[in-house]
Amino acid sequence: QVQLVESGGGLVQAGGSLRLSCAASGSSFRVNAMGWYRQAPTKQRELVAFITSGGTTTYADSVKGRFTISRDNAKNTVYLQMNSLKPEDTAVYYCYCRAQLGLSLRDYWGQGTQVTVSS
User: Fold this and answer.
1) Helix (H, G, I), strand (E, B) or coil at 19
2) Any idea what DSSP says for residue 41?
3) pLDDT band at 1, cuts 50/70/90?
4) Could you tell me if 67 and 49 are in contact, meaning their C-beta atoms sit under 8 angstroms apart?
5) Which residues, in sequence order, are CB contacts of 35 under 8 Å at separation 6+?
6) What angle do CA 57, 63, 69 make, to 5 degrees?
7) Contact by Cβ (8 Å): 81, 71
8) Is residue 86 packed enough to be buried (19+ CB in 10 Å), middle (13-18) or exposed (0-12)?
9) Cα-Cα-Cα-Cα dihedral of 34, 72, 65, 90, to 10°?
10) Rounded distance, CA 59 to CA 105, Å?
11) Residues 6 or more apart from 17 whose CB is under 8 A from it?
C-alpha cells in the first residue's frame, strides 16, 4: 500500500505563485512515475504535469511556461511550482503516483488539495 500526502494548496491572487508537494510513503514499493491532475467544478479531471523516474516531463498546453514539475527520487516526492497563476487554474489538484509493488504496477491518488486563484 502506498499513501500520498499533498500540501501547498491555498488561495492566491492572479499572477502569484504556489508550490505543491506530494510525498509517497509505504513499504516495499518503488515509484515509477508521478504527476499532477486537476479538476475544476464543471470540468473533467485533466492532466497538468507528469514526470517519470528518469526525469521525462509532460505538461498540459495551458500551463507550459508557467508550471514546473520536479521530483526528489530519494524522498519519493514530487513538486509542482506554479507561477503566473490565473483564475482559470482554480481547481482541486490531485497527486498521482504509479508505483511498483513486487511484480505489479499500481496506481495511487492523493485526496486532492484546493487551489483558488482570485482575480
Assistant:
1) strand
2) T
3) confident
4) yes
5) 47, 48, 49, 50, 51, 58, 69, 78, 95, 96
6) 35
7) no
8) middle
9) 60
10) 23
11) 81, 82, 83, 84, 85
Q: Do residues 110 and 94 touch, judged by C-beta distance below 8 A?
A: yes
Query: From CA 39, how far away is CA 42, in angstroms rounded?
Result: 8
In degrees to the nearest 10, what's the CA dihedral of 83, 90, 48, 59? -40
For residue 88, is pLDDT > 90? yes
**Other CB atoms within 10 Å distance of the CB of residue 67:** 21
Sign of the CA dihedral running 40, 46, 48, 51: positive
Average pLDDT over residues 76-99: 97
DSSP 66-119: TEEEEEEGGGTEEEEEE-S--GGG-EEEEEEEEEEETTEEEEEE---EEEEEE-
